[in-house]
Amino acid sequence: MALCAAAASTATAFASSRLSASTARPRGPSSTSLPSFVGAFPRAVATRRSRRAAAPAAARRAGVTVRAEAKKKSVLIVNTNSGGHAVIGFYFAKELLAAGHAVTVLTVGDEGSDKMKKPPFSRFSELTSAGGKTVWGDPADVGAAMGGASFDVVLDNNGKDLDAVKPVADWAKSAGVGQFLFISSAGIYKPTEEPPHVEGDAVKESAGHVGVEKYIAEQFGSWASFRPQYMIGSGNNKDCEEWFFDRIVRNRPVPIPGNGMQLTNIAHVRDLSRMLSLAVEKPGAAAGKIFNCVSDRAVTLSGMAKLCAAAAGVAAVEVVLYDPAAAGVDAKKAFPFRNMHFYSEPRAAKEALGWRSSTNLPEDLKERYAEYAASGRGEKTMTFDLDDKILAAVGKAPASVAV
C-alpha cells in the first residue's frame, strides 16, 4: 500500500494495529486510498518533501509493502508478423508510450520483408517517434535479440502454442521479469448452448493456447491471459469488414452462411490495448486471471452487412442466405467469420480492472470505410468465384433477403 504521508516516529504498535485492515484492501497499483490512521499523524513535519521521504522508510519498518503508484515500467512486446493480432501490439505500444512507459517491440521475422510494408508495421515510425524501440528477430532466441536489456513486463502477442511461447516465457522468468501477459484466443471455448462465453467456461483442452495458459500459470506469480475475438481499427490488415465493402461498393449481393442471425463480437483494438494497459497499471488485480478481450456488444452476421452498407453510404444491401453444404462450398473459405454463434463478454475485465468498452461499431466502421475508400481497393478489379457458385446454387431465391 503506497503511503503518501508517514512519520518516522510512528509507534510500531499503532501501525501494526491497522496493518491487517489496510493490507486486506485491493492491492492493485491503481489503489490510492490512505490508511485510516494517516489523519491522526502529528502535524509537526518539517516539509512536504521530508514527509514523502519518510514514508517509505516508515512503511518498511512497519512491514508494509510500498508500491510506487506512478512507477513507469519497461515493457517488451513480442509481436506477430501476420494475422489480425499484430495490430494489438501496435496499439498497446502506443498507449504505453503515451503514458510514459518504456516500450520495445520485437517483431517476428525480417525488417526488410514484404510483410513490413503493410500496416501496422508500415506505421512503426509512430512508435519510434514517441520514444519506442523496434527490433526484428526470432522469439525462440529472445535473449540474444534483446542484448541483455531488462524488462518489468513481457507480452507475448505471437505464439499460439507452447512450442512458440515457452522460449519467451522461460527467458522472461530467468531474466526476472515481474509480469507475463499472453494474447490467447476466445476460439478455445467449447461451443455452448448458453452464449455468450464468459471467463471460466469450458475450453478445448487440445487447443494450443490452453497449454500456454497452463504453463505460464505454473511459472509466474503475476500473469494474465487475454482472449480476443474479431477486432476493428485503423492499421488492421486482416480482411473482415473489407470483405463486406468489396461486395457492397460493387452492388453485389452479400452471401452469408446459415440464417444470418448468428451472434459474434467485434471490438475496436483501442479497447483491447486499454485492457492490456490496465493490467500493467494494476498487476495485483490482473494476476492469475483470464480476460475475454472483447467489446460488450454483439452483432448478427446479417447486421454486420447492414452496418457496413450504412458506413459506405449505401441505403440497402441484398443478403443471400445459404447452406454451405447444399451450395458445395467451405464456409471457412467463403466467409470471414465463423458460421456459428461466436460471442463472448468481458465480465472479468470490468470487475477486476474497472475496464469499460468504447467500441461503437457503426462509427468505427465509418473509420474503416474511409480508409478502404482512400486505398483505392474499391476500384480494383476483383473476381468473386465462390460468391458466384453460391448464388448459382441458391438461385438468389427464396434465400435472398433485403436487410
Automatic annotation (TrEMBL):
Taxonomically, the superkingdom here is Eukaryota
Give Gene Ontology CC terms: cytosol
Give all residue intervals belonging to the NAD-dependent epimerase/dehydratase domain: 83-293
Q: Name one Pfam family in it.
A: Epimerase
GO biological process, alphabetically ordered: monosaccharide metabolic process
**Molecular function terms, GO-annotated:** UDP-glucose 4-epimerase activity
Q: What is this protein called?
A: NAD-dependent epimerase/dehydratase domain-containing protein
Q: Which species does the entry assign this protein to?
A: Miscanthus lutarioriparius
